Amino acid sequence: MKTKLFLIIAMVFNSLVFCQDSLKVNEQKVRLIAVTPLNDDITKVNGLTVGLGFDPKYLLKDDDLTELQTVNGINLEPNPLGIIYWFFYNPSGFEHQQLIKVNGINLSLAGYLRGISHNGISLSMYNYGHTMNGVMGSLISFDIEKARGVFFATMNVSSREMKGLSIAPFNGAEVLRGVQIGFYNNNSDGKGLQIGLVNRSKKMKGLQIGFWNKNGKRTLPLINF
Known about the structure:
This protein is α/β, with parallel strands linked by helices. 16% of the residues lie in helices and 58% in strands. It is built from 2 helices and 11 strands; from the N terminus they run αβββαββββββββ. Strands 1, 2, 3, 4, 5, 6, 7, 8, 9, 10 and 11 form an 11-stranded mixed sheet that branches. Strand 3 (69-77), helix 2 (82-88) and strand 4 form a beta-alpha-beta unit. The longest helix is centred in the first third of the chain and has 28 residues, at 2-29. InterPro entries: LA_2272-like.
């Protein structure tokens, strides 16, 4: 009888411990404030993230992520090594996969690397992100997968798919659905408007305004269509 009672007490105790551990794990998955790079056990931050940046592959952190991590709020990256990342980071060497999604405001002395997507407002030194939606500026350049919104940079804006407005000295897109404004504008498949000194497109449905304009049909100065 004592043995059975002891076993019952032990089982109840183990169950309580397991429940407490489960609650701790669940508590760890959602944060109000977190430091980046995010720990793997954090799935969502509703509030503020501060640190060096998100991308686990480039920041020498465990990259075995099993689910998308989400940040709703403000992301601050006072990263003094940002310019070094820009010199040496090669986005083509990384998988085109979303690892982290930010919804809100981003202010960074560095910038997003390939696994990051953003909805909202962003100002950074550079941006190598995956999917960017909103109003975003870069002190140097964009080299991203998909862009929807307004984008401006001091050097170049490059995107596989651009839907919106792109403003920079050099603008490039494989697919353009919108407007490019700069010194040199280029796209492979465009629908919209190009304004610049030189405008080029392999297939353009729209208007080109500039010193020299070339599309799949003709080459003309000043205005082409």
